[in-house]
Amino acid sequence: MNAPAVTRHPVTDRVREALAITLRGADELIPESDWLQKLARAEATGEPLRIKLGLDPTAPDIHIGHTVVLNKLRQLQNLGHTVIFLIGDFTSLIGDPSGRNSTRPPLSAEQIRVNAETYREQAYKILDPERTELRYNSEWCDQLGARGMIQLAAKYTVARMMERNDFHQRFTEGSSISLHEFLYPLMQGYDSVALKSDLELGGTDQKFNLLMGRHLQQEHGQEPQCVLTMPLLVGLDGEHKMSKSKHNYIGITEDANTMFAKTLSISDDLMWDWYTLLSFKSLAEIDALKAEVTGGRNPKDAKVMLAKEITARFHSAAAADAAEQDFALRSKGGIPDEIPELTLTGAPVGIGALIKQANLAASTGEANRLIDGGGVRIDGQVVSDRGLKLDVGTYVLQVGKRKFARVTLS
Are residues 62 and 186 in the same domain? Predict the structure, then answer.
């Protein structure tokens, strides 16, 4: 079936501004001309556009890398459009093969249910719940049945499916590809048909799946959605995309002090990418701040501003101020007001074993490596002897800049 003809509407300054907001920090908008006309139509008719983001609840929490697309949704939501936060409780049963070199193990229905509830709560830290349409793709996917699934599969060829980079690479390398993995992009695309979306967002690794939505909408006689891909946020290490498996992430449920300190740990160069993708400041404000730094202002000032903005978003302005004070105190070698306290017996105790018992290191071996690296202090003094034993008394142990414990030995 052919998609209906699109009526052209005048492109006003407000429409151009909405396009600029859409493009901020984006990797690609496909096709830009179609999205411009959708924006023009929305302004002319007063009918909001339907903007979709789908996330599979494959893990129990979200890190700030996920919030890149959520921030973009909020920006478009602020323009008056309808945001659809789609939880892929059905597609999670398949497992997204994007970027994978092996079949993703499926999750249980109970895991998906628990994770989905957590995703909803965390997404609402950014999105306005009153202006968000929360949906689950099991609503329509469960109803398809075997007949509907076969009819859907008939709308795409194996040859085109094998054009997808990860499928092509795995086939070339002789790695296995399960048939059910071909269903994933089809089901994600069918979500766009069911929701009649005008725009779908995703990371750059989702481009194939997002374009599938355009194809299937055309096959069903709908006006095809536009596709907006956002860059994958580089993590704390400055090299790889933010990922829990790379241990280079900031979880949005982490405490304020940790969130603040982790943000301050990124490089000066990476800071500007984070500003573009994570900050709610305008591009003009960011450019002005960057010019100040280029002109001699300490880049740490800009990084502190970013750290406070991110921390305040997920906690509060007061918590961000307190985190700043806590970081300053720790960086000067001071002891925070509130630290864990515990009482241990068996003095004298070796310093390595004591650090482990105080939960400041995972093992005695790790504690010894920290001592060798000059990362352990007792009452503010650096410990260099891993053979040190502590007798009866109370000591403040410090590991690195952020881990403290007040230990009473008897």
Answer: yes
The verdict on 283 and 363 lying in the same domain is: no
Judge whether 389 is annotated as a binding position: no
Q: Using an 8 Å Cβ cutoff, are 226 and 18 in contact?
A: no
* 71 within some domain: yes
Look at phi and psi of residue 267 and say left if phi exceeds 0, alpha if psi is from -120 to 50, else beta.
beta
Clarify whether residues 282 and 359 are in a common domain. no
Same structural domain, 56 and 148: yes
Give pLDDT tens digits for 32-66: 999 999 999 999 999 999 999 998 877 667 899 98
CB 305 within 8 A of CB 289: yes
Give yes or no for a contact between 116 and 58, defined as CB atoms under 8 angstroms apart. no
Q: What is the mean pLDDT of residues 204-218?
A: 91
What are the residues whose beta carbons fall under 8 Å from the beta carbon of 1, sequence distance 6 or more?
218, 219, 220, 221
**Distance of alpha carbon 208 from the chain centroid:** 20
Q: Exposed, middle or buried: residue 103 (CB in 10 Å: 0-12, 13-18, 19+)?
A: middle
Helix (H, G, I), strand (E, B) or coil at 131: helix
Regarding whether 96 and 159 lie in a shared domain, the answer is yes
Concatenated DSSP letters of 239-286: SSB--TTTT---BTTS-HHHHHHHHHTS-HHHHHHHHHHH--S-HHHH
